[in-house]
Specification:
This protein has 170 residues and is of the alpha+beta class. The strands form three sheets. Strands 5-7-6 form a three-stranded antiparallel β-sheet. Strands 1-2 form a two-stranded antiparallel ribbon. It has a two-stranded antiparallel ribbon with strand order 3-4. A hairpin with a 2-residue loop joins strand 6 and strand 7. It is rod-shaped and about 80 Å long.
Length: 170
Amino acid sequence: MNTDLLCGSLAEPSRLRTYSAVVLGARNPEQIAGVTGLDTAVVVKAVQRLTKSGLISFDREGLHAEEDVFKEAIRTSRPEREPLDPDPARDTILKAFIRDGRLTGFPTLPAKTRIVLEYLINSFEPGRDYPEAEVNTILNTWHPDHAALRRLLVDARLLTRSNGIYHRTN
């Protein structure tokens, strides 16, 4: 089921209330009507629609919510993630620390820190000088602690500093 169909199936308040009641244990239309306050005819119609869309199933014990459809809808609707690095091992490390173009945290292992810094240094053009304010602006797009990032890049010798001017080393 795609996410549009899933959302559309639950967009009607009576269907949402019906599905919620089944998730909470109601097993037939009468029980659903009792806990939701909906008319039984409305509940029957909602159950039909929810069954047709795969959100509810039934067996001899009664109605059951198919909760896995949400996970499946997310799995099938996610666009393929563009790797951050062609090397799968490096990409795995980068995706652990970079989400939506932001650094989510600092690695504690030096080898992982180096991989992240080598990725971030690509924000700077080789051969160009950067005043500290511009370095801070660029690094702020990655993480609010631009000073820590700047120090890490200098300590890793990926940026050099002289008289407040920074330069990418490679």
